[in-house]
């Protein structure tokens, strides 16, 4: 079961590069378990509106915003494991 991670960013956000790097690091650890999409809210404003985002960075797992702000690696890994467990159930 692949977990889709969407990382919402903005070019002017000082914390967004850290969030993107974190997700890319996790993808290296779990290459077969996650799919990553980076979304610049200045380019895809519609997607940001769909999710009701008011701040970046934001991280969504399987279409649900789980973090606003850059999560810690352990927090993100735990959320991914929860998503994988839910899909198996």
From TrEMBL:
Keywords: Electron transport, Transport
Keyword DNA damage: no
GO molecular-function term, one example from the UniProt record: electron transfer activity
Statement: the UniProt record of this protein carries the keyword Membrane: no
Residues in Thioredoxin domain copies: 1-85
InterPro entries, per the entry: GLR_AS, Thio_glut, Thioredoxin-like_fold, Thioredoxin-like_sf, Thioredoxin_domain
Gene Ontology BP annotations: cell redox homeostasis
SUPFAM superfamilies referenced in this protein's UniProt entry, alphabetically: Thioredoxin-like
Family affiliation: Belongs to the glutaredoxin family.
NCBIfam families: redox_disulf_1
The protein's name: MJ0307 family thioredoxin
Native source organism of the sequence: Methanobacterium spitsbergense
